[in-house]
Amino acid sequence: MRTLSWESYFSETMDGIVANDAKNISIRANDLGWLGASGDRSNLTTGIIAKGGTTGVIMGNHVKDPLTDGIFVTGAGTDVTVEANTIDVVFAGNLSSSQDGIDVQTGAVALVMGNTVNVPAVASGIITKAAAGVQLFNAGGATVVIGNTITNPISGIVSRGNGYDIKNNTVIGR
Q1: In the list 18, 117, 123, 155, which could disulfide-bond 49, CB 3.0-4.6 Å?
Q2: pTM score over 0.90
Q3: Choice among 21-25, 43-47, 80-84, 110-114 with the minimum mean pLDDT
Q4: Tens digit of pLDDT for each residue in 121-148?
Q5: In degrees rounded to 5, what are phi and psi of residue 94?
Q6: Dist CA 24 CA 52 (whole Å)
């Protein structure tokens, strides 16, 4: 894991891991996040991105304080399993866009299974804005969301599109 801070050499925002048109990739057991002072804005834009026809597994990763999404899966031909990841949205506070724990969009297909998305009940100095624990926005119809635990989001699971299988998830409100 790279420690991000305003004083570090890499002071601009950045994505943690980006897989673009990667076939049979395995993204496992990575720790991606922000270790700045409580109340500081995170420099991690998105923890993990899979796009452009990427296939494979995103498993067992820990993403802390993304400005936008913990895990973002997008694009026709992208087909990944997103399993057993933990996304903690503590004090990132991106006011210009929503934060989603896991966001699957634009024709991508994903099996989203056994993930945990945590949002604190009380945000710190900067407003935490976790729009959805899991968002499906015109994702591929074969997308399945099963057995995830989502705590304190604005919306637990948001479905914008057709043909998804959403079952056995736990959403715990404020």
Answers
A1: 18
A2: no
A3: 43-47
A4: 654 444 445 578 999 999 999 999 999 9
A5: -80, 110
A6: 13
Q: For residues 139 and 116, what is the distance between their CA atoms, to the nearest angstrom?
A: 20
What digits encode the pLDDT tens for the residues 109-118?
999 999 999 9
Asked if 124 and 90 touch (Cβ cutoff 8 Å), the reply is yes
C-alpha span between 53 and 20 (Å, rounded): 7
Give the closest residue to 48 by CA, choosing from 23, 148, 26: 26
Q: What DSSP string runs through 34-54?
A: --S-TTSPP-BS-SEEEESS-
Single-letter amino acid code for the residue at 20:
N
How far is residue 62's CA from residue 116's CA, in Å, rounded to a whole number?
10
